[in-house]
Amino acid sequence: MEGWLVLDGYEDEPAAFGVPNYLGFHIRYICGVLESRGVPYTYMTIDQWRMRHKARLGDQSERAALRKELSELDGTVILAGAVVPGKYVRGTPISRREMDEVLSILPSEQPVLCGGWAIRHWRYDGWTPLRSSLFCAVQDTDASLHHYLSTGHWEHHRRTPEQWSEWALAGAFSKAVTDHPDLVSPDGSPGPLTYEIELYQGCVRFKRGCKFCIEPKKGLPLWRSEGDVLTEISTALDSGVRNVRIGGATDIYTYRAEGVEELEYPIPDPEPIARVLHGAREDERLTILHVDNANPSIVAESLEPATEITKTLVETLSDGAVLSFGLESADPTVHEQNWLNCDPQQLKTAVRLVNEHGRGRGERGLPKLLPGLNFIAGLNGETEESYQMNLELLRSMREEGLWLRRINIRQVEGQGFQEIPEQAFSEFKREVREGIDRPLLEEMLPIGTLLRGVWWEAHDDRIRRPEQVLDPRHRDESILFECFHPLHRFIV
User: Which of 394, 466, 405 is nearest to 441 (CA)?
Assistant: First the structure.
C-alpha cells in the first residue's frame, strides 16, 4: 500500500449503485481527485479488505504488523454509501461494526475521511467514533478531500460543475477501475464489472419528493452534458470496461426535461437522451448498455415523448434491460402521507407502454426491455390491508398479461416511519414470490430458452463468500451443468 488508502465500502442509493459487480461513481470521483493531483494512492474494496486483513485483526502479532503497514500511509478515505436495504450476491457493503474495526486499526495520527450517505445516517443515529483525526463529510466527499489536500484543513464542500467533469473523467482511468477485482476474470477475459455512470443529480420532484428518499434533498436537478457523459464512457472503455449502466438519475425520461422548475410533471425531451444512448452505442467496444430508474407518472402523463424515448431504449440497450419503477405502495393513504411519485393507474399505463415495445427477445435470449417494480414496507399510513392492495394490483397486471422483469420488496430505513406487521409482511413476500414471480419467470423463460453470456455468481448458496473468490473449484464449469441440467430450463 502506498500514499492514501481509498477503501470502497460500496454505495446503494436510490439513484446510485456501486456494489459488485457494479462500480459506483462516487468512489471514482474520490480517486479522480487523487489522479488529477498526481497523489499516490491504493484502491481496495471492502471485500478485498475482508479477504486480506479481517483474520489478522484477531491475532495480536498480525494486528501489530498490519498497523505498522498502515502507518506508512499518508491518509485514508472510506466510502460507506449503502442506504437502500437489499440483499447482495457478489459483494456486501461495509457495516458500522466493520467501520469501527477499520478505524481502530488505523494509526491515530493519520487523517481519515469518511463519506457517503451511510455515514450521515449513522451519525444521525448516534454513531460517534472516538478519533481526533476523523472527518465525516456531509456534502461531497471528493470536494472535501480536494480542499484538505489544498489547505491541510478539513471543511465541508460541494464540487463545482468544472470539478465534476474533471474528477469524473479522471476517475474513469483511476485505480478504482484498473485495479477493481471484477475488471478482468482469472482467465484474462473481461470480467463482469459494470460501470455505473452519473447522468444527473437530484430529482424533478425536488419540491415535494418521496419522504423516504434522499434524492429530493439534493435539490433542483443538475444535468451533465451529453458530451461529458460520452467522453467518460469512452475513457472507461479505454481502461478496459465493457459494461455500462447509465444511472445517477431518478428518472431516465426526465434527463433535460422541459418545465422542471414549474411543472408537476415535467415534459420529457427525447433528443438529449437519444444522443447519449446512440453515442454510446457507436463504440463497438461496449458490450452491455443498461439504464436504471424511471418515473411511471412522467411516462403516463406525457405518453407521446415517453413513447419515443422508450423506442430509443429498446433500440440501443442490451437485452435484459430493466426500467426500475418505484410505486412503493398501491395504498392511496400511504401514497398521500409519503408523497409518493405515482399511483397504480399511472403505473399500469407505463407498464403497458414498456411491454408493448420491449417484450421482444434479444440476442442473449432475454426480453429487450421490461419494467421492474419496487415496493417499500413500513411507510407511514400502512396497514395489513396495504399489502392486499399491492397483491390486487399485481394480480390485475398478471390477468392483463403484463410482464415485470423483477419485483423488489424492501423495508424502509431511517427514523420517522412506522413498525412493520411482520406476519402480514412475510405473507405478502411469500405470495409475491410464489404466486407472481415464479409464474412470470416461467412465462418469460419457458423450457428450452437459450440464454447466452450467463455469469455464474454463487455456488451452494446465494452469497458469494471469500472462499468462492479464492478457491478455483468454485469457478469450475462443471458447476453450471450440476446446477442447470436438473432444471432442464436454461441452456448456457
Answer: 405
Question: Which residues, at least 6 apart from 360, have a Cβ–Cβ distance to it below 8 Å?
Answer: 314, 367, 368
Inter-axis angle of helices 96-105 and 60-70, nearest 10: 80
Give the pTM: 0.93
State the Cα–Cα distance between residues 231 and 303, nearest whole angstrom: 31
In which residue are the cell numbers 447522468 written? 199
404 Cβ contact list (under 8 Å, min separation 6): 351, 370, 371, 372, 373, 394, 397, 436, 440
Q: How many Cβ atoms from other residues are within 10 Å of residue 13's Cβ?
A: 21
Query: Parallel, antiparallel, or unpaired for β 200-201 and 222-223?
Result: antiparallel
Strand 243-247 relative to strand 293-294, pairing: unpaired
User: Is 281 buried (19+), middle (13-18) or exposed (0-12) by CB count in 10 A?
Assistant: middle
For 122-180, what is each residue's pLDDT tens digit? 888 788 887 888 999 999 999 999 999 999 999 999 999 999 999 999 999 999 999 99
**Running DSSP on this structure, what letter comes out for residue 95?**
P
Residues in a beta bridge with 332: none
User: What phi and psi, each to the nearest 5 degrees, are found at residue 235?
Assistant: -65, -40
List pLDDT tens digits, range 231-290. 999 999 999 999 999 998 999 999 999 999 999 899 999 999 999 999 999 999 999 999
DSSP assignment letter at 485: G
The cell for 326 is 418505484
Backbone angles phi, psi at 370, to 5 degrees: -135, 155
C-alpha cell at 54: 479481517
C-alpha to C-alpha distance for 463 and 476, rounded to whole angstroms: 17
* Bridge partners, residue 373, by sequence: 325, 407
Q: Are 340 and 203 in contact (CB under 8 A)?
A: no
